Each structure stands twice: as structure tokens, then as C-alpha cells.
Records
---
Amino acid sequence: MRNRTAAILICFFGGYFGVHKFYLGQVTQGIIYLIFCWTCIPALISFFEFLGLCFMTDREFDARFNYDTSSPNMLDRATSYPVAPSNRSKTEATATLYELKKLYEDGIITAEEYESKRRKMLEDI
């Protein structure tokens, strides 16, 4: 499990070479940083990534970098977002769809999950 504080420190001290990208599991981006480290562009980008990591909440960090579908400790995806039964009113279904969209925008669920649940909700209404 990745630690946000460790990611911040690695980004600050090793961001020039993309070490933080390897730590966060973004190997392709880490290799790109290594290839272009002589241009100082990765240093500039990593500075802004450092700021982003500093202001990111732990929940956002976990949703983005620590989500593992095989781990039994993580929330079950099937129950981590709202599902409206067919007997709900249209107002409640609309509110549930809004919450589902918010979870998609926050990166907690994927586009495929969002679409499948949205279609199921619309069929049930």
C-alpha cells in the first residue's frame, strides 16, 4: 500500500528523475521522465505534481493510487456506490444518478462501471 507522505517526499527529492512515478505504479511515465531528465522539463512537472500531492486528501490519494480489486481489505466495488431499486420515485433515482456521476468524476468508479449502473438505473425507472 502506497503512502501519501512517502510519495510527497519521493516527488520532492526524486521528481527530477521520475522516481515518484515508479513508486506510484506509473512505470511508463517514470521511463519518460528518465529519458527527458536532461531537459529539466520533468523537474518542472514534478514540482507541480508535488504541490498536487501536498493538497490531495488521503481519500483521493487512496482512490487514485491504492485501489486494488484483488485485495480483500478494500471496499467491494459492487456496494461502494448507490443503487436505486425499481420501486423508488424518479426524484430519488435522479439523486442516485447524481451521486453515481459524482463518484465517476472523483475517479472512484470507472467509465464502464458508471455506464452499466446508469443504464440499469434508467431501465428500472
Note: The chain has two domains: 4-65, 77-124.
---
Amino acid sequence: MAWDGISEFVSVAETQSFTKASQQMGISTAQVSRQISELEKRLKTRLFYRTTRKVTLTEEGRLFYRHCRGLVDSLEAAEQAITNLQVKPQGKIKMTAPVTYGERHILPLLNDFMSVYEEVQITVNLSNDKLDLLEQGYDLAIRLGKLVDSTLMAKMLGQRTNYVCASPSYLAQHGSPVSLSDLHNHSCLLGTLDYWRFKEKGKDRHIRVSGTLRYNSGFGLVDAALKGLGIVQLPHYYVETHLQSGDLVVLLDEFSEPDEGIWAVYPQNRHLSPKIRLLVDYLSEHLK
């Protein structure tokens, strides 16, 4: 039959293992291997590269996966409709979120969500990389800032504000910048980018900055700013408590860019199942 081997193929593609796929599906490894072999014979193409350590998709396999993932999603959606998951959400959700924002805001909300909906199973990969949701089998992603991938559907969950700030001790010693060009005379604490974003006279400005340190850690940059090592630009969830206490002071506020979006995104060809819709609505309600 045309469907034979499809579920096994998708499972192996996503787990990158015949053994893990067999465990996931509750069948023997030999049966998974046999179904994949029959599928490759029927298609007259090789779908996987197999070594003793790893199983990866061939180019033809990646193309086939993109289509098959949608078929499996449609089958799952049909089963969900029959079992009426709108009443009792259950099943797996695979999602990704940025590391720091995910740790501080998303994971605690997921814990609250799962304490209410106990039959939902959530797997989260915290990563600052823009992962391919379709190819890697993700149902949902949390992304920050401007969205550039037009192939994804998106719902805004909230907003974040970026602040430029420094400690009173740094400002007492070096003075406060009053224009964007003044930043060139200051020690700027760098993250992964070598420029900061501003808005001046209605136009976006990217100002190249430099300093004596560069961290890929927002918490490390906050600590450096608190210790008077320079000026930093970071989202509100890193600095808001320090701004409230006066340990950090906002600078160049008149040049701040508009707040950025916090988004839930998902592939267009994925059926937004009741459990995912419920989770997105839950996140939206609590993040706002």
C-alpha cells in the first residue's frame, strides 16, 4: 500500500535512529528496517545514509520528509478529531525557544500549563539558533524581535523593550552620552552583534560600537555594567530590576527603537491542533 513505511520513515528521520524509532512506535527494529527498505525499493531511491554511528537523510530523503511530515500531521489531526482532544488535550508537543528568555519566562509557564493539562507531553530545545521547524519536526517555536521567515505562521505573544544603560559609577567617571555619535567615545559592552539598534528622526539606525569585552551571555553583560565596565544594550528582562533599584540608569532613551515582538511561530502546513492552540493562547495570556 502507498502508506506502508511512511510512519516508520518519518520516525527514523526525526530520531536519526532505527532503534529509537522502533521504541517510539512500539515495534521491532527489524520491522522498521524492513518497512524502510520496502519504501526505498518502491520509490527507487535511497532515503538514508546509514553508518554504525548515525542515520541521516539523503537529499531525496529530505525532500520526501517535507511532504510526509504533512501527511503524518494530517493523520494525527484526524485522530485528534475522533478522540475529541478539544475537551481533553493530550499528546506530544515539540518546541524550541531562545535560551535565556526560555529559561526565565517560557519554561515556568510550561510547568504551570502541564500542571493543569497532565496528559500533554512537552519537549523543549532551548537554542538561540533559528532552527528549521519543518525539517526538524518542531510544532512550535518562540522567537524574539523581527521575523524574517515568511514561510512560518506567527502570533504575537507580547513585546520586549531594549534599553541602553550604565551604572552611576561609570557615568560619574566617563560622563553620559547625549547623542548616538557619543557612543564612539565610550566603552560599549558587546554581545553577539557589533552594532546597536536605534531610531533617529523616524529612521532605523545601526550604530557600530566597540569596547574591551564581548560576551554571548546577557547575564555576564549585566554584571559587567553593574561593575562599571561600560554601557550595555539589552532587553528589559535582563535589566528591569536593576533600573528600578537605580543600580543602572537608562541612556539615550529618545533614540530607543519601538518595542519588538515576542512570537509563537509554527509551519504553515502544520494543522494547529487543539493542544497547541491551547498552549499558544495560554502563553499569550500570561506573557502579556
Note: The chain has nine helices and twelve strands.
---
Amino acid sequence: MLRARRELSAVSARLREQAERPVSGGESALIGMLGDRLVSVLRSHNTPSTLYYVRADGETYVVKVEFGRAPTLRDEIRWYRNAAQRGLPRRLFITGHSGPGLSFLLLKRFGDGSTVDDLALAGESTGQLGRHVARAMDSDTELFHRTQCHVGQDHVHRLTERRLALRRSQAGKFPYLRTLMDVDVVTINGIGLPGASRCLNRVFGDPRLVSYLTPDRVGMTFGDLHCGNILVREGFTEVVDPRGGPLLPITYDYGKLIQSVEGGYGAVMAGRYVLRRTDGTAYEFVPEVVPGYSSVAVLLAASCDELRYLQSLYYAALHFTAMLPHHASAQEETTALYLCGVSLFDKLFTQLA
């Protein structure tokens, strides 16, 4: 055990040295520094972070790295530190540091990386999926209740407006995405639905609807509680990739769960869907139906009263809209996510009617 701590301390010290170099040398220098401790590297096109799996005396750890400014990872480091300062369990967190060259998080590895989405797409039973989702919700809800405060609906709505304005600006760098965002009507499987911008204008232009859908309490949450961030191992559950931005309403995270179990997010991210553009802004789009999620969606809805569920459904639709620029390099995937969002907006307005 002492040897393992020494090796881990050595890895952490070298990472800090690398982080503090204004010119870090990039990934090649990092890989050279990790040497034979490096086990594997995991990258994703929709996140700026790269995961490096390293060994320290027989144990595997995860080093999450972003080079340069690294705003996303800096926020995540801040989240873990805030949690520790509030006396919350450290869970997977070991240490983290942000410097001019790079930012890194050193985390314990939890199982083999299987997620609730992985289990669902593999045909896991509803009961098992429901237990993992319920544990994640309980953990997030406890965190929220321990830190919540009243801020007023105007404050929460301004957070939403700023987030979407930033994403619209980012979307403008991709002509196809800018066109998709601005389209008035999109046809999905022969049914014409209002486009995302039209849906947003409908909500934002109606003060009563904004008031109804916007909560007035915020607190500390995981901030990205979709089923791809809920890790499982032999009956145990852990949530990863917390967001360290502003305090948020709990319906923000419940919306992330609805995004997964009702919105088709996991199926799209796994490439399990059929998408064909038939004419202009008309598409045939069929995400794979995940049988286990149908009952989990019922359980999720039952855990909320009607207002909280509708607010969560609203956030789920917003999440699909806001995430599009992060996926924009993969045009088909981004289009599929956009169509998921439009479908959720349609579900929201149908239930509000």
C-alpha cells in the first residue's frame, strides 16, 4: 500500500510539473512522461478531455487531461474541490490541478467503465436499470438538498438564455447546423414539427410559460446526470463527469435522465439509429428502442410531481439543443440529436396542452 501511494504521488507530481509548463509539449510529452505506467488512451470527438489509464503498483487509475485553457476540466476540478470543502465524500476523486500547460484530474478507476446506457443497450432487465438510475438520482437529490438556495425564476431563466445564446453562437461556425437550428418546420417520419428555434421562441416569448417551466431554487448537482455518466460495477453505482459551473435546479439533472431514457440519447451516441434525409428538412429517423428504458421512464416520471416532471422534460429538450455544437464535427450524429430534441419539445407542448 505504501509503495502504491509513493507511485501514485510520483505520477501526480510529474503531472503537476507538466501542467505548470507554459508550453507543455502536448500529448507526446505527456505520454513520454507517463512511460510504461500508461495502459491505454481513450478519446471522444464530443469532449475536449482525453482519458489516460495508468498503473501504480498493480492498480489502475484514470488521468483525465485537457491541454491549454481547459475550461471544461477546470470546472470539473472546481466541482470536486467544492464537494470536498462541503464535507461530501471524495468518492473517485484523488487530486487535480490546472496550469498554463494542461489541466488534469487523477481519479480511482471504477470497474470496467460499463454504464447504465451500456447495460440498457445490451438488454439488461428493467429492475437492474431502475436500481442504478434510482441510486444516481438519490445521490444527486441529496447533494442538491444539502446545498440548495432560493434565487428566483428570473435568475434561473437568465442562466438558460445565456447558455443557449452561447451555443447558438458556436453553432454559427457550422453552416449546416446554423441552417438546421433556424428552420421553421422539420418533418420527421412524415410529421411536420416546429424547429428548435421556433420552440424556444414559443417558450421565451410567453412569460407565463417561462414562469411555469422555470424553478426558483438552485443547488449543487452533478450537472450531467445522463445514463452514459452512471457507471456500474457488481451492483454498485457511481456518477462521473460532474459539471462545476453555476448552481443549478435539480430539474436540470432530471432532464439529463429524461434525455437518456425517453429522448434516445444513448442510442444515438452508440450509433444505434437509422437516419435518412428525404427532402430539404424532411427525415426518416428511427432511434433504436431500448426496451428496459420504457419502464425506467415510468419510474422516473413517478418520482416527480407533474410540475417537476414537465420542468425536467423542458430541460431535456433544452439539453439536446444546447449540446449540438459539441457534436458538430459529426454531422449525421448531430442531426440525429437535433431531431431527438425537436421530438421532446413536441412531447412537452403536447403534455402542456
Note: The mean pLDDT is 92.
---
Amino acid sequence: MALQVFTAVTGAAWESELVGALDREDHGVTVVRRCVDVADLLAAATTGTGQAALLSAELRRLDGAAVARLTAAGVAVVGLVEPGDDRSAERLRQLGVVRVLSADAEPEEIARALREAVAGVPAAGHDVGDPRAALPALGLPPEGPGPPAGEGRVVAVWGPTGAPGRTTVAVGLADEAARLGVGTLLVDADVYGGVVAQVLGLLDESPGLAAAARQAGAGTLDVAALARLAWSVRPRLRALTGLARPDRWPELRPQGVAVVLGEARRLAALTVVDCGFSVEEDEELSFDTAAPRRNGATLTVLEAADTVVCVSGADPVALQRTVRALGELRDVLPGVHPVVVVNQVRRGPVPGDPRREIAAALARFTGCEVAAFLPADRRATDAALAAGRTLGEVAPGSALRTALRALAAELTGVPVPTGRRRVRRSG
């Protein structure tokens, strides 16, 4: 059976000749529709009549979200560029088009690339609006992707609704990792109310992650551009600020966020991402067209991260929320196994020894062990917030800072310096 292909190479002088050469029986390819623009191509993809799409780099309004939606619909994508146009070829690859050929390639070579692309695309398992469609479009495995050789790690800091201290932990981990000599990028990806900029005393109207995601969607983001968008907080620590207003969440499209994380791995040895709390997939929302989903960015970060740190509060209400949140995470992303950290530990809300009681409760109801307990230290956190600085700057001797430093050392594999001075011997 011939491979059914859509084409979207309008405006190219070689379009008619190429379509005619491909649509021959001996190539095993049948052009079922010649699309005039991206909207026409996406509409055709939803009909299920085609298995692959052949598109040109000059196609107007082509972005990463469109490529992700094609892949989600089970349509493989092959790109064509003008001979010698390496810049357009690189842009297509960043948008998620793995196979890119020169427009002067032989029809047999193009047909073979289309067949190989189709063989590498799984059957449509997600709706075209599913945020997880962004990862397959980038060539990443659907669950548990590890960092490519020689590239940085991504740590997602996540937790249930309420105020368990996700941002405090994310900022503390990033700052302490940088102080241990690890180049670190802190990313605010909380779509419900990111406050990393305020915590660090930065200008909250800076473009930050939203601008990076826009450039990623257009295929123009690279390491240099990401570095320009990130604040230099202190030596070895950069920060990519979040949304200035929660109602701007549609700007953080999952595919764009996935590309940002990929470039972040190249920019920094460690990327710490402060996530939103919700992992609901909004399955009740069904549209004829793909609608943006608020939690898509969070799901993308959690699935792409090498380590997910779940931050829980230490009182009965917070613990109940954590139990429910871990259950929801297990249902939505069964391949993600978070590291549980209990924050704001103190005597009073939990009878007896709080650490022992909390550890026993979480083990019983979630099956998870507690990796670290972070003590409540209101005086230190208040001082840091008032100054717009980190705990390491305003309260270097606080118990919370010490615990965060130990956790950062464990996550990065860099030991905490002992601080002992060598004694010079005379003679």
C-alpha cells in the first residue's frame, strides 16, 4: 500500500515538479493533499487520511507547536530547505523536525526519508492538544528521559497546593548548588503564580521564560539567546524569571518549554525548575481544535526532569495534600518517581517526634521514603524575603540553609566543603 502524504511547500518554485515526481507508483508514495498553509495542514492531519507531511522551511506560521500537533496526530514530518540553507535546516530541527533534506534531493531519497519517518512515529496516542505531545516531537522518549551525554541535569521542584515552600526550596537548592561550584540556572515555570523574581529582588516585568518559550516556538532559541534572557544573580547562578501575571499562562506552550529545557541543559550543569502544583490533564475540556492547557508546562517539566523533588509541608493538612498529590502524579506520569522532601518541620502540629511520625505516615499512605527534612526557620526566611536575597547571603548559619546545602550536595554529587583550614608547619 502506498504511503499517503500531505505536502505543504507552497510558494516554492520547485513545488509542482517535486509533487509530480513523488506521486509515482514506483516510489510507493501518494500525495493525498497539497496544503496551502499551516492551518490547512493541521486540519488535514486530524482527518487520519495521511501518514506523513512534507513541508518546506519557508512555510508561513510554522512553529514548534504545529510540529508537535502533527506528531501527536500520528503524522510524521520531513522538512525541505533550499540547497545550502543550513540556517533553515537548523531551525526546522529545533522545531522538532528530525529529518531535513535539501530540496534538490532525488525523489527516491525523499520517499525513503518519508518511509523512515513514518516508521519512527508511534500511532497517535494523544489528542492533538495533549501537552505530552511536545516530547515525542523533540525526539525524546515518552517517559523518564535522562540527559544526553555531557549535558546538564534538570531538577524539578514540585509539590501539592497550599504553601509547602516550593519556591523557598527551589531558590535554596539553586543558590547552594552554585556555591558548591556548579553552574546553575533557576527557572520559574509556575503557571499559577511564580514569585522567583520577587524572592530574588529582580524586576518582575523582565521577559524571562515567556520570551524564551516564544523564541523556542519560532525555532530561534539557542544557548546564547537563553543566556541573554536569564539574570546573572551571582557567580555561577542565573535566573530565568516567570510570568508577571498568572493570566499569561497560554504563553508557556509545552513544546516551547521542552525546547527551553533542552537549551538549559547546554547552558548550565544544573537547571532547577520551580513548577506549578497541578498535574490535572483537563480531560473534560474537548474542542474541535487543539486548545492550550494550563498544566501542560508543568507536565512537560516533570516528565523531562532527571529528578523530581516533591516538597511537602509538615502539618496534617499539608501531609494529606501531599498524599493526594503523589497519587495524582502516579496516575498521570507513572514513570516519574519523586524524591520527597518535608519542609517546615517543627514540634507542635504533629504529636511526638515529628520526623518519625511524618516518615511513618508517608511510608504507609504513599510508599515513599522521606529523603530530607527541612527545619522551620521563620526568622531566616523572613530576613531573606525582606532583603530580596538568598539564605546563604543573609543567614549563612541558619539550620534551614544547612539542610538545603546538604540536599544540594546530594543532588549534584558535590560534597560540602569541611571548612577546615590547613595548618602551616614551621621548619
Note: The CA atoms of residues 191 and 249 lie 5 Å apart.
